[in-house]
Amino acid sequence: xxxDSGKDPSALSAEWREWLVExxxxxxxxxELVEVLVKGGVDAELARSALLAETQDPHFQGVVRVAQMQRxxxxxxxxxxxxxxxxxxHQQVDRHVALPxxxxxxxxxxxxxxxxxxxxxxxxTARGGWTLARITEQLGPVARPGEPLSxxxxxxxxxxxxxxxxxxxxxxxxxxxxxxxxxLWLEPAGAELPLGPLRKNLLRCQLSGRSVLQLVPSFExxxxxxxxxxxxxxxxxAAPPTPALRLTVELAAGxxxxxxxxxxxxxxxxxxxxxxxxxxxxxxxxNTVWKEPASETAPSGPPPRVR
Length: 307
Fold this sequence. Notes:
It contains ten helices and eleven strands. By secondary structure, it is an alpha+beta fold. This is JmjC domain-containing protein. It comes from Hyalangium minutum.
């Protein structure tokens, strides 16, 4: 096919061209796009010519291949979401009074699922002796009253007495504090942590107060990123997109929560909250990391030689 030269496709405004390419990538039928363009005041001949020109543009062809792969990945994530729903895991986060370490890793850690364990912190001196007021004072100028804080307890030698009161959850976290990497979280009443992704598995141990977390599964990546972007590409009259699944869990003092890598979470502290997280686990293998997209990637293979 050759491009219709009757009209100059560039006569379309930049906004219309952006809209046209976006909807072509979404797989909207050509005639539907032409109809919308015409209703928007675009000449019918120009609309068809512009559509043909965009689809034949080499830049567009390259983007189409990337978009097709993304759609395949999204449909695969939807398969994982359906298995999650069929298992009943979409209703609430599992809770256990006690959970053997072997079951913890087999049923939750390696399956990328959160879990709350209620009896894992009974040996902790810190659980009964740590309060937000005391820790704020002991941290010195680093902690500002009334403001949330997240800090590694390995950063300063003067915080060593605090480390001596911590015991990484036996069987779950690495016993060596350097390996388990304890991090302290001070969250005064009313504090909010915005929704964000977990780049590693974390064990959150609630020492005092309560925290309420909203969790979004890793397979909801495509939905949650679109929701957070605040935009929607749904057509007029079409059914609204399925919202990302969210699970709410309240963590009380003495409880432990596994936050799986790849999940997203938001936190609210309804009262003064104090917690410690660990990122080193009682495993031979290191923690799995969800890496940031590389700023530079190797190019794909060169195009076939034109004969």
